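thread: overnight batch results

M.L. [08:02]
morning all. the overnight job finished for the chain we discussed friday. pasting input first so we're all looking at the same thing
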Amino acid sequence: MAAAELECLLGNANGKLKIGATVQPYHRDLLSRLETDDPTSPRRPANPTTLERAKVRPRVELDIQLAGDTFVQGQCISGHLVVHVRSHRRADTQVLLANNTLRVIGFEYLTDSPTFHVFYHLSQRFDDISYAGEQIFSESPDYSDEEGYREAKEGLHVLPFEMGLPMDSRFGKPKGVIDVPGGVAMRYIIMASIDIKDPDTNRLSLAHFYRQCSIWPGLSLRELLAPSTRPLVSTAVFSVPQGGSYSKLRLAARVPRPSYFTGQSCYVHVQIANNTQRTVRSLCMTLVRTTTIYRPRSTNHGGKTDEYIANKYTVKTVIEDISESRLVMAERTTRRAASSRGWWTGVNPDEKTAFTHRILVPPDAISVARSKLLAVDHAIRVTIYASAGMLGPTTHLSVTLPIRIVSMLSVDPPTSVAGPGDMIGATYNRDGGLNGSSGEPRLHRSELENRTDPPPTYRTRPPSLEQPQNTIVSSRYAYPEHRFIHCAKHIFPFYDNVKLKSTRIVGAIAILQ
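M.L. [08:03]
and the structure it wrote out:
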């Protein structure tokens, strides 16, 4: 049920909706019920809620302008929400708005079927993350109806916002971005939505808009780089027949910690005990990625879906080698060197040795813990090859060390753009003119130095909105109108005879001062 509704909100591959698309009436609870995926076809409600974007002429249109596309837990998502309230026709009445909400959603889905699973969902009211939330209403909250709807203000509204991504896991755990072949996709979107009511018919509709982004988990560098108290060790023994008895070839590999970064060299400590008559001539380290896709079954069993039986998923596993590092005995070095033999001399019969070798982690390798549909695991496979001669039979022995690969963005995130002072909310009328500003005017440098209180953030309502004054705002100053006219008449005696623009006169006053 929730899968079909989310699929309707997202639209097709180009983000377009079907004409006349609808969702369930109580869509405010829709995204909180997305964990209950049901592969069966949903039953349409009697009075569905229409989507404004699915209409030929939507009454309210939304747009989101972000300061970036990559965010990490602990940072703030900042940008602007653009709300366009179209002018109503003469026969129609002005629409009512309520519940302006901004959501961050991370979900995974099957590309060939409407099966979704949300693993991260953060929802906040727009009034809590922006001081300009009241700008889209033409009435005060005292004039709202019993459901909280108020009359919308026509025009184009630009509303700044600043939304923090908490570090705890109350809203789920983001996993980053990974390209998964095999029919599974993992995406993150930032979605804005506003409830709309028609005052004549009391019909509800939903205006929404979303943009894609990437959310990464915030991790501690100290915890990731700290060595484990009990390092991960893997051992293997192989018995080789020799003269009616058996001799043993032992291999042990160890990694100091369980987590590594993308693009980093992973060093593995190797120990080889060769009690055979063969020589260990080469070693190969391979980084193995195991991608597991869990596809829900759609067959019914006795009136119950496979959710009630033990085997409710068909599992598809893809194992591939994504990186490799070889170490060969007496490998040739560069020309004109003092020795033609490499640093590793192999392991001779009845010999025991220990050394360290490394393998490079690709920059696109990310481990993903399973939530429902997808799991990506990594492991380092260490294999040694022993033979009695160059043309003799070869014996190989291998061990596997599971590791976790995380992105460097989790510990070194991009600079968070949050709350710049020159980004303020604004409202434009139908002709494109600026109706007003919801931010404070810029002040002179001397005024900023003498000012004690810090400038307001996106979440704080500035005092200029509480006590508006009749001021003329230039690029640097804010002068009351009566003072401006008084100064202009003293500086320019011909003020009454010559028509000058106010901005030029204010600029001249600033130069003379």
